[in-house]
Amino acid sequence: MDPRELRGNIPLQYLAWVAYPLIFVLFASLFCHLVSPQAIGSGIPELKTILRGVVLKEYLTLKAFIAKVIGLTAALGSGMPVGKEGPFVHIASICAAVLSRFMSFFSGVYQNPYCYTDILTVGCAVGVGCCFGTPLGGVLFSIEVTSTYFAVRNYWRGYFAATFSAFIFRVLSVFNKDAVTITALFRTNFRMDFPFDLQELPAFAIIGISCGFLGAFFVYLNRQVVLFMRRPNAMTRFLIKHRLIFPAVVTLVIASLTFPPGFGQFMAGELMPRECINSLFDNFTWTKIWGSPPPVGLGRSAAWLHPDVSVFVVLLLFFVMKFWMSAVATTMPIPSGAFMPVFILGAAFGRLVGEIMATLFPHGIVFDGILYRIIPGGYAVIGAAALTGAVTHTVSTAVICFELTGQISHILPMMVAVILANMVAQGLQPSLYDSIIQVKKLPYLPELGFGHMSQYNIFVENIMVRKVKFISSQSTYREVNTCWTPPHSKPSHWWTQKTP
């Protein structure tokens, strides 16, 4: 189709806007269902279960690798609000598992279950490292997400592998001419001499606390959508029988709402995820340039400046709409993660607070006789780290943000916000990965929350059956009769002893 035919033709534009994501999502769903259903979803919850010693069949096989790679490529190409961090961890873990099986032909050390667990742990770090080009944050994130007890000997292994994976990832982007040189993925240029004032710390704390509640609500909403789809009723039975209807309906609704000439113009619907992050992290104060000619270098950030709608309304609509869209889209039967959609949501929320602060202090904050203006982009970075930390129950998201932006100017407020967000979220909901484990009923023992600390003092002897009755071939009739007499009549209270 000639691109000139789409100009001014709204129906054809809508058809093209909706058709592409529909084709890619349906292909990803059908391909994974036919090749390897284990490739559906994130993969991190299953990996947490495997690292606890549980054997899950077909999750670390070559078929799952093929389905995950091809399905993830189609899912990301659809433009739906899904991420790639979880699938990258799954893919890297499959590579580690296949490599360990291959190396076992030459050395028996990889047949040791402890070594197998170690190499899977390193694979998790590689997955995050090559996903964002963040080796330090990747190792720390993999430890927090997948391991309860981490072997210190794997530190240097994880850093070694993650560093090389991140290096190759960035070098390939240079060779592909996506970048001029090896730099941070979402490089920022915030003021270094005075990035923020101490008077702004309460606003950063509010971002952290708010992100804690929002992160817990995101996990709750995601779980409720999954539980609703699993209820035994006529609609769910129909959707199970016709597996492509649910992803098709979700994709159609999301694509229709984000259509730029339609409702999408009020929520920057034309921006892709990377463009969203780059624009939310920019140095411009949108409330000051709204309604005036766009300055030089504004770029794709102009999508947030609607001539008839306030910047606050656009940011609020984007956050609210993308919030439920991301929670629903991550439940589709395709390879998908939630880290990047939540990261964008946090950046939008932080940017909203930053623009409000810039409006409340239009001339900036005076310190030592010098006037320093508010940087809304810094608030966006802090919001991104806080919300992802709240959803995943990790603190390493702050380190990932440092590596993603290439700046540590906001290290103090970011750590404060991430810690506060974690404190609030952990007291309300499990992490997103533990929530998926509970929904799928995987054999995994989750960590006890703040309200269950007393259960750490419960020992096995407090709940075990001490007086165990048993019968053998030499047992008398009286002994057998005693075993079958209440309260010993339950099979769990007696055993049959076989004698040679």
From TrEMBL:
Gene3D superfamilies: CBS-domain (3.10.580.10), Clc chloride channel (1.10.3080.10)
Gene Ontology terms for molecular function: voltage-gated chloride channel activity
Keyword Transport applies: yes
Gene Ontology cellular component annotations, sorted alphabetically: chloride channel complex; plasma membrane
Signal peptide: none
Membrane association type: Multi-pass membrane protein
Recorded coiled-coil stretches: none
Membrane spanning residue stretches: 12-36, 88-107, 119-143, 155-175, 201-223, 244-263, 304-325, 337-361
Stored Pfam families: Voltage_CLC (PF00654)
Taxonomic superkingdom: Eukaryota
Keywords of the record: CBS domain, Chloride, Chloride channel, Ion channel, Ion transport, Membrane, Repeat, Transmembrane, Transmembrane helix, Transport, Voltage-gated channel
Predominant subcellular localization, coarse grouping: membrane
Subcellular location: Membrane
Protein name: Chloride channel protein
Organism of origin: Oryzias javanicus (Javanese ricefish)
